[in-house]
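Tutorial, part two.
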Amino acid sequence: MGDFYVEHEYWVAVFQLVTAMLGMGATLTARDFRDVVREPGAVTLGMVVQLVLVPLATFGFLRLLGVHGGVAVGVALIASIPGGTTSNIFTYFARGNSALSISITGLTTLACLITTPLILAALISDNLPADFTMPTGRIVNEIAFTLLLPLALGMLYLYLYPRQAVAVSKWCIRASLFGIVLIVVGSMSAGRLNLAAFGMDNALLVVYFTLALTATGWLAARLFTLSRPDSIAIGLEVIVRNVNLGVLLKASLFPASTAATAQLGDTVLLTLLLYGSLQMIIAAVLIMFHRKQVG
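Running the prediction step on this input gives:
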């Protein structure tokens, strides 16, 4: 399985992202973006936090701790991608402003067509091989065709077949999770997920970065004196990223089949998967905390 996965890594990553975005789209309607009109201030602030404060906090983190190599690239990928659809569900469970969360997720997902390559270029230019050129055009195309197009098709399916859309969304999300399992199992069988080689120091850096993003969301809410529901929504949007997109970009930029960048790509993938696990743990803790506070 290891050799098969290395050869087809990119298409496995495409499968897991496309199915995730189809599933997300099949739950969204134009009404879900009503906060853009009803609460433009909160939506704008959420966008600023995601597209400006998160990259700035990441830049400071990388420089302050001297993070370099694959971990720096992985951290930059995490900062450059939008929030994931899971943040909307977590916001609901934490009794936050779900409509605001959905609006921010949708708008930052659209914006990442432009912002992701810009943020990546700004954050990791010093951590890439000397002969590496950032393929901005390819990144834009992949975001358009594997993230935005499936999202739009999912929304169209919901509009045309509202009764079937719920089941389709569930199966798409399950398929996406299966895709993540394939990536993990395939990488392990190919010897790509080497935790010993990754090292405890790098693992701690990912933990510190997760906490740094958690603090960024919390401080932004306090700085702008947001209401509790809005603070929960924006805080979880900052923490819960679309790691599916990060995995696809890793497979595209640093394919496992290319020997020159395979080792760098392995470290990037481990950084993404570790962050993906940590973000779920942090989100679960916050959900329990906020539900207890509300009573």
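The chain has a mean pLDDT of 86. In part three we will examine how such features are distributed along the chain.
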